[in-house]
Amino acid sequence: MDAQSRGRADEIDPADQWVLNPQTGDYELRLPQSGGDSYRTPSAPGPRGSGRRGTAREGDGERRSAVRDGAGERRSGGRNGEGRGPVPEQRGRRANGTRGQEGPDSAGRRKRRQPKARRKKALLWTGGVMAFVLVGLSVGGYALYQHFNGNLNTVDVGDAGNKDVITANAPLNILIIGTDKRTGKGNEGYGDKGSTGHADTNILFHVSKDRTNATALSIPRDLITNIPDCKTRQPDGSDKVIPGTRNIRFNVSLGQEGRDPGCTMETVKEITGLKVDHFMMVDFNAVKELTTAVGGVKVCLAHPVKDSKSHLDLPQGESKIQGEDALAFVRTRHSFGNQSDLDRIKVQQQFIGSMIRQMKSDDTLTSPTKLYGLADAATKALTVDKGIGSIKKLTSLAKELGKIDTKNITFVTAPVIDNPAEKVHATVVLNTAKSDPLFQMMRDDTSLTEVKKQKKAAKSKQDALLKGTKAAAADVRVDVLNGGDRAGAAQETVTWLQNEQGVLKSTNKANAPEKISKTTLEYAPNQADQARALAAMMGLPGSALKKGTTDAEGLQAMVLTLGADFKGAGVPVTGPAKVPDDIPLANAGKAECAK
Description:
This protein is α/β, with parallel strands linked by helices. It is 26% helix and 19% strand. It is built from 14 helices and 27 strands. α5 packs antiparallel against α9. The longest helix has 19 residues, at 341-359.
């Protein structure tokens, strides 16, 4: 019993049009021919020459044969040994391939609706959740399974990234880099001539631990910052350390002095305090190819634009753009706001939000042709770190990202001010009064979007922490270690606890074995009253408390390890509850008009 015979053609689940070829391990697209129930493999772009992006991966030619041009032969499950062979038990199809005939267990298979539900969910998970890559990667639904590994470029960033796709039960940070490198047909007039590719557009995509929300932090290319020493992997496999540079534009963290994306990742960590897990890098061509693959992206203008520099020419109101127009839109700055790069960032955020909505729309998800074209265009445009450097790994990543509701993706730009060291303001510096609490919220994995589930969980955890008796200060016993960068923090805290809080059984244990980003308090189950008391004194969040499994014995003390978030004795460690009111936010689920 095939997909077509279950009901009318318009009831076919798009997932049914993809079947597993056991000989290649591929999912292959099979579309119904007009006037019958036979299936064919649609024409698809053939494998590109091996000269592009290096040598093709082992076995790549065999995999790609599944999508050759003209592979339109009919495939019957009953012709073992002919063509590509049978597709075993695909959605109720008999392994021996006899169509329309029911075996003794066919009734049982007909009743099993759960696999359909699972595959439908997988389609929603993977369909277009990565539009925010600007320009970057769409994970294109089932088309991902069409072995596009040969399209991908990878860079070994070593310890700068995460060697695993994700770390279980932890937030996820992905750095999206749009370079100004002039690659691709028709891009000779964009960017800097001869550029090796600087970090022109930069978005740190922070995905929450519970995958309910994400924050997309734009980092201005003209931000003056310190670029730390970074280790780069050379073609011969050796490592070379590129010396750091102080007080320099962020965009030269890539391409200058031989710096690779790992150096940009380390620079982002230097700025925000957030460890970056992975990077995705694209050039100008990505915008053109991806917007064309999805049939255009809707944008809105508060006023008509005719820009002589970018050649953008659009009317007031809504337009649908792709290709050259799309690239012109995200590169235009002289027609928006005060004509600065900061205003261009706002326009780019609006564009990316629209692209996310388009990629998650039924129009894209239910079109196998669009999904294939999208995945093909995306992987051709993409350079990633080795931790996610295969289609299998990208699929795993996509499933994590696909859990996020579009309305819970918030765009924000790192708060900056004009560089006071310049008479003519061409660069910016962080506005630390606003950027510090924003970065702290991200380090604490606090959503910039109101997520009811997360808010309720946080409140419950805090209530549980405060509920119950608190030990008297004289009964609190704690060892204090310094795991942050503040010199003398452990002694400073012990002095404050003893002299101002009455915690006389506190001891300075010097430096922790390693640096940590967040302060923690480890305690035994029978020390819960002491933990509540110390947490209240220090303003510790519930996430800082780490309860052990066995009771403390004798004079065993709790262990307080001060992290990079420790700002001084008596200063609450708890991060801000919400982002400062005057920091502009944009939501991926809401359409806005560029001004």
